[in-house]
Amino acid sequence: MKGVFIGLGSNLADPIAQIESAITALNDYDEITVIARSSLYSSPPMGPQDQPDYINAVVEIETTLFAHHLLDALQNIEQQQGRVRDRHWGERTIDLDLLVYGNNILDDERLQVPHIGIAERSFVLYPLAEIATDITIPTMGKIEQLLSNCPRDGLKRVE
Predict the structure, then answer these.
(1) What is the pTM of this model?
(2) Active site residues
């Protein structure tokens, strides 16, 4: 499967190192190959404001895994990197979100693809647009249109 995009975010325990470690872990899966990666971006927290800013990125992968098996792999990487789910939208060592799975639309108790929050999240849209300049996200539209309706809200590229 091509056209699969994963969002990465971290704001604990050396976030840049956490993102790099997660990208390495993705590439270490036999069924996953990272084929493109965005720059790193810094963004204010979306949830509770009493936490550090996030480092975010997006990668494009090729995979032979079905979407739910890919979700299992992402959650396995999160667990290996010490992800603890203490509070909704709270701080984390690593967060891996399946954003787009080709042209597929999935909606069940475990997985919504395309990811429901893509269109409102600058920390997803801008890195995604960097590596997929002409993507059309199923049910949402072209990336250029989504970007035009999504302010940066403090998003900055990390040099």
Answers:
(1) 0.96
(2) 83, 92, 95, 97
